[in-house]
Amino acid sequence: MANYYARQGRSVVQHLQYLYETYGHFVTNNYYVFVDEPSKTNTIFKRLRNEGHYWARLGDLRITAIRDLTSPGWDSETADGKTSLPTSGGSHMITYKVRTAARLRLCVCC
């Protein structure tokens, strides 16, 4: 990669700076929790869904959008509430957007 950008007359650091200016910074912090009983996971996600009355805040963070990809699916950013992404009846996945432009994605992976 360094050779590629050197042939273009710039360094990798200069290209990284260009990417920051063009697309912004990206940070990821993954955390995994292992649950030994599927019924516990179902209970947690049932509480998060709150019978379709999704939470408005996560601690001090105001939630600005929610996408739930568990069938039948729901997306607060679409006019009809339907998600453009595929849904699944066999797994849980909820994505929260917060005011800071950060996203929190909760999912169950088997």
Q: What does this molecule look like?
A:
It is a single chain. This protein is an alpha+beta fold and 110 residues long. It has two domains: 1-30, no CATH class; 32-107, no CATH class. Helix content is 27%, strand content 21%. The protein contains three helices and five strands; from the N terminus they run αααβββββ. It has helices at residues 2-7, 12-23, 38-49, and strands spanning 57-58, 61-68, 74-75, 93-98, 103-107. Strands 1, 2, 3, 4 and 5 form a five-stranded antiparallel β-sheet that branches. Strand 4 and strand 5 form a beta hairpin. The radius of gyration is 19 Å and the shape is elongated. The model has no long low-confidence stretch (mean pLDDT 88).
Strand content: 15-25%
Our Rg estimate from Cα atoms comes to 19 Å
Distance between the termini: 36 Å
Mean pLDDT: 88
Biggest sheet statistics: 5 strands, antiparallel
**Count of strand segments:** 5
The quaternary state of the protein chains shown equals single chain
Tell me roughly what share of residues is in helical segments: 25-40%
Keywords:
110 residues; alpha+beta; 2 domains; 3 helices; 27% helix
